[in-house]
Amino acid sequence: MDTTTFLDLNDDCIADILSHLPARDHMHFGQVCSRFRNVQNDYAAGLYKRLELTDSEQELRLLRKAGEHVRILFLSLEEEPTPRGVLTKTLGALANLERITLKLRGTGLSCCDIKCIIKCIEKLHKIQSVGLIRGVADTTLSTVETYADSVDLLSSFVVEENGLMEDTFRVGVLPFGNGSIEKALADVVPHLTHVREVDLTLERPAREYLPITQIPELHTLSMFWNDVPRGPLLPLLSALAAAQSGNLINLFMGVRHLEPDEVKAIARIHSLQDLEVSGISQPSYIYHLTELRNLVRLRFNEQFEDRLSAPVLAVVQACPNLAYLRLENVMSDDFIYKAFKVLQQTRDPLHPKALFLAVPQEEVMGSLQDPDIERYIHLVGQ
């Protein structure tokens, strides 16, 4: 019987095997025999267009060998780093590098070290962005920062080194040429496998944050505008609904304005249990939230010109598990009675789940006299 050996495989098969080996083993692979070395060289443009490495000596050797082919690089700086001169010299030779992500573990990297690395990268002719993953990996991503320039980036390290900033888990992007941060975030997100909660302040057009919606274990998202609106939110909210409709539990929206289609997109995140929202300019938009049948807590952070009744009652009726509802508005005079009637119809009369209703103080000046109503509604002043 004929025996097939490893060397009987064609070059495509050998290259495929090489592509599945850890990067630290690639240099050893090329040293096995001349054929393996030739395959590594011949397929280098495809094998090394995107690389994920540490700054260990063996992996930096691979980076130097494949440098002309590398377009996208993820580099994890280890606890016992290679001398910085070796690292910066290696990075400075990556003539075709377009995007780099640096994972910094805060283990001995000084501001001077970071400055040398960033200044080296900044000189590369084709570089588009630098992504940073900072701090010890955690379930909470506290910040997604955008740096105006390298000076801005480096100043954040000075603040941290001086103890003026809490050492939290966060990411940042330095785009060059006023480019988008979307691709840089797309490079970062696959490395956020432990993240369950994200605090997101929109400093750029909302569309550029689309990759954040792809965090696999995202359960809680807080989204804010800290200044003027940054374009329509619909692309971001639609992507969030498509990717996280069965996963996202808590959503906190601190924005100034929501269009009806944007509220509809929120309503497609069927797994939501806790929703806090501002920016709903028309009471009629609230009707869309009746699709959120799993809601337990709902909070509105704005006052409407008209007194509310019908749209909020529709949500109460549609959400059988709703336990807490906060409203900033003065409600219609008979709202509490109408809410009681809705709850009577939709909840178990023997063991009704009470609705804690947080409304403006003037709404709770008088106590509820009807004991039946008190079984269903507990008023909480603000």
From TrEMBL:
SUPFAM superfamilies: F-box domain, RNI-like. Residues 3-51 form the F-box domain. Pfam families: F-box. This is F-box domain-containing protein. It comes from Drosophila madeirensis (Fruit fly). The lineage of its organism: Eukaryota, Metazoa, Ecdysozoa, Arthropoda, Hexapoda. It comes from the Eukaryota.
